[in-house]
Amino acid sequence: MELVINGEKQHLELVGTIQDVIEKLGLTGKPVVAEADGKVLTAELWTETSVYPGMKIELVHFVGGG
Amino acid sequence: MHTDSLTIGGRTLTSRFFIGTGLFPNPYVQKEAIKASGAEVLTFAIRRINLASTEDDSILQHLEGENYVYLPNTSGARNADEAVRIARLARASGLSDWIKVEISVNERTLLPDPIETLKATEQLVKEGFTVLPYTSDDPVICKRLEEAGAAAVMPGAAPIGTGLGILNPYNLGLIVEEAGVPIIVDAGLGSASDVTQAMELGVSGVLMNTPVAKAKDPVRMARAMSLAIEAGRLSYLAGRIGKKRYASASSGLDAFKLK
Prior knowledge:
The complex is a heterodimer of chains A (66) and B (259).
Chain A: E1 2-5, E2 8-11, H1 18-24, E3 33-36, E4 39-41, E5 56-64
Parallel strand pairs in A: 1-5
Antiparallel strand pairs in A: 1-2, 3-4, 3-5
Chain B: E1 6-8, E2 11-13, E3 17-20, H1 27-37, E4 41-48, E5 69-72, H2 80-92, E6 98-101, H3 114-126, E7 130-135, H4 139-147, E8 154-155, H5 169-178, E9 184-186, H6 192-200, E10 205-208, H7 210-213, H8 218-238
Parallel strand pairs in B: 3-4, 3-10, 4-5, 6-7, 7-8, 9-10
Antiparallel strand pairs in B: 1-2
Helix pairs in contact in B: 1-8, 2-3, 4-5, 6-8
Family (chain B): Belongs to the ThiG family.
Domain Thiazole synthase ThiG (chain B): 7-251
EC number (chain B): 2.8.1.10
């Protein structure tokens, strides 16, 4: 399935939910925050949020800053 | 000093040092500098994950096991809507509902946009965040942010990362005089003397990143800043003498001088 993740097209096989996307990208267990179609998703919502072709997903994390 | 604590958003802090986590030479120095600073509040930014190298370790993994207050910022936001979006993402991490509103439009000065900052503060307060807006050193806007429900207001001393020190101590003094919430000086400080000056003006705390992280010895500078905060705070509480134009002897009456 083709998704737009962090502004770039990504082709991921066998993904049904945001949780699957996180796993496919090797981000399981990391302090990641997801947003899909402009909606912020806490981790509990990842398994129940389905993805579809062309969905816009943002994956962010904390970095150093002042 | 143990009774001289600071409470923000229901959280009592024993340190008046808020420290940023950017620009340190490496995670080890960062961790040691944070320890030396005694800071309990740590600031962070929110950025997209680099999908090309997800091996990039998160800043948080080096700080695990400590009881810090996380203060994510909305840096990168150019207006209130973008800041609100970043704040929601930060809160969804489950790590903190504190947010430093930071909205800059001018790349050269990075000075805050106070109008957008006020809008974002109003919205985020409504959504239940503990909001600490970074803003201009203007007494009117600082008061407006307080009225909007900011848990603390954070005027800049000078533009971010410049180390110019307090450009307008008069304004900062007025801001403190009129404030009903803690005032934290955020941005522009360069050295321990700047920090002492800020604390002597009566601010409740300081937020620093660059002057510690980019010092030749960040760990030592963190300690220096921490001592400066304490010295300035004590001096403020003790009450300095007034300034006079002419000398006055320290040893009493003229009548007892040897002649």
